[in-house]
Amino acid sequence: MPMPPAKPAPPFPPEVRARLEVDAKEVIGRYPQARSALLPLLHLVQAEEGYVTGTGIEFCADVLGLTTAEVSAVSTFYTMYRRRQGGDFHVGVCTNTLCAVMGGDEIFASLKDHLGIGNKETTADGVVTLEHIECNAACDYAPVVMVNWEFFDDATPQSAKELVDGLRAGQDAVPTRGARLCTFRDTSRILAGFPDERPGAVDEGGAGGAASLVGLRIANGTHTDTQATPAQVTPPRRSTETADGRPTETATEQPPAPSSHDAPAETAESDPANATQPDKDKDGDQAP
């Protein structure tokens, strides 16, 4: 027996639809092709309802001239789009390899016990949603906790519990790198490309700190940590004696020959004078 067709999602109320259409037109105008605006538009409808609903999917499909299947495929691929309602603060604990071995697994387990919720669940007061997340490219500050996609570096079980307790108590929280937190819906609107209108928020935050620059300092030979030694390149050793044991006149240190990785090798296309020759068999005839 064939399944009945799915019912369309209820549309946005007219006043909400009119407001979103103005925002959507601004977003779409930033791109040479309308469909390129899909990702920020998904953030826009997520900012409206707290997650990507069927109503939001149909709105995006309508204003972009796409099918709901195309929009659904994108919205379910990226983990930054929620599939169900969550809390004001999305607390993500990285449990990928490096963060895990540095304490991420312990942090996640302690928060589950402390909050009394499991993965992708929300506290009863609707403030905190907890989730273990994939790598967010902050391995130099492992273990990392992210709240609404802002970094809280070098976390511990205790600091993580204090963080969520403060959020539930209505206290401001300032990430290690970034502006003070706003709600998940407000964050989604900022990710849609609209300015953060909170006074002073634009001037807050910062970039990567000392841990991000250690590799560069080691490469430049300016790292002061005695435990880390800059990489050294040793030239090939030249003999100072001839074959019969007599010293050579002057042994001049020569730089190492360039590696094959330093520049692309010349090929038949780049060096017509040395065109590739066809393979030959052992008798010198051209191979079949």
Provide structural commentary.
The chain has 288 residues and is of the alpha+beta class. Among the domains are: 102 residues, no CATH class; 94 residues, Glutaredoxin (3-Layer(aba) Sandwich), CATH 3.40.30. 33% of the residues lie in helices and 7% in strands. It is built from eight helices and five strands, in the order H-H-H-H-E-H-E-E-E-E-H-H-H. The chain has a five-stranded mixed sheet. A hairpin with a 2-residue loop joins strand 4 and strand 5. The protein is globular.
Task: Output the keywords.
Glutaredoxin, 5 strands, 288 residues, single chain, globular, alpha+beta, 8 helices
Portion in beta strands: 5-15%
What's the N-to-C terminus distance?
60 Å
Strand element count:
5
Give the mean pLDDT: 82
- The string of secondary-structure elements, in order, is HHHHEHEEEEHHH
Helicity, in percent?
A: 25-40%
Strand order of the largest sheet: 2-3-1-4-5
The profile of the biggest β sheet is: 5 strands, mixed
**What's the total helix number?**
8
Quick summary:
This protein has 288 residues and is an alpha+beta fold.
Layout of secondary structure:
Blueprint lengths: L13 H15 L9 H12 L4 H11 L3 H8 L13 E6 L2 H19 L5 E2 L5 E6 L11 E3 L2 E3 L4 H12 L15 H8 L18 H11 L68
Parallel strand pairs: 1-3
Antiparallel strand pairs: 1-4, 2-3, 4-5
Helix pairs in contact: 1-2, 2-3, 2-7, 3-4, 5-6
